[in-house]
Amino acid sequence: MAVISSGTAPKTAPCLKKLSKEEFKEFVCELLDREEHPKVYKKQVEGKDYIDVAEVMVSVFSEVYVLQVAVEVLKEANFNNYAIDLGKSFSLFINSISFMDRRCSCLCKMSKEFVEKNKKKLMAKTTEANALLDVLHHNKVLDDHSYCKMKALSSDKKKMKKLLTGAYLASETACDTFCDFLFSTQPHLVANLLNY
């Protein structure tokens, strides 16, 4: 699954604004019918306009995956033209990933060492902890119990502290998954920790 950087991605709301009232209603119905987790629930979007629905989608799916989910839902609702337009924006964005992002990925091949060396700073500065936990759970780094326990914590900092002080990232594979997420979503943090 492709990931996108916070604040740089094309926004979902302008695409939803193009939908007619009936099309928007159909989009919301398809969004609610989506079977994959995480899910959007009726009480979150009932009576909301396109801006509010876009904000709910970002809060549920994070900025990391919201565009991909929006494209999938548009296709399910048979709004292929809108899906193609949003998909083009998404592709242009992905193709514009900077040299620095790729360089960070190459320089951090030793992900376990990177995590060990930078634990305190990662606890303090990593954002989008919920999306990270989703990725770790999906990749079986976290079991259901640990995942639910961490998701219940009240802040990104608390979630990151629990994750980084436990034995969850003990394996190289777990650290690779963690670092792949960071490289994709927070390349500037990685670059800062690598001191360039």
UniProtKB/TrEMBL annotation:
Domain of life: Eukaryota
Residue ranges of every copy of the Pyrin domain listed in the record: 1-92
Gene3D superfamilies for the chain: Death Domain, Fas (1.10.533.10)
Lineage, top ranks: Eukaryota, Metazoa, Chordata, Craniata, Vertebrata
Gene Ontology terms describing biological process: inflammatory response; innate immune response; regulation of apoptotic process
Main location: cytoplasm
InterPro entries: CARD, DAPIN, DEATH-like_dom_sf, NLRP_Inflammasome
Positions of the CARD domain: 107-196
The name this protein goes by in its record: Pyrin domain-containing protein
Localisation: Cytoplasm, Cytosol
SMART domains with a match to the protein in the record: PYRIN
Organism expressing this protein natively: Oryzias melastigma
Keywords: Cytoplasm, Immunity, Inflammatory response, Innate immunity
Gene Ontology CC annotation, any one: cytosol
PROSITE patterns, per database record: CARD, DAPIN
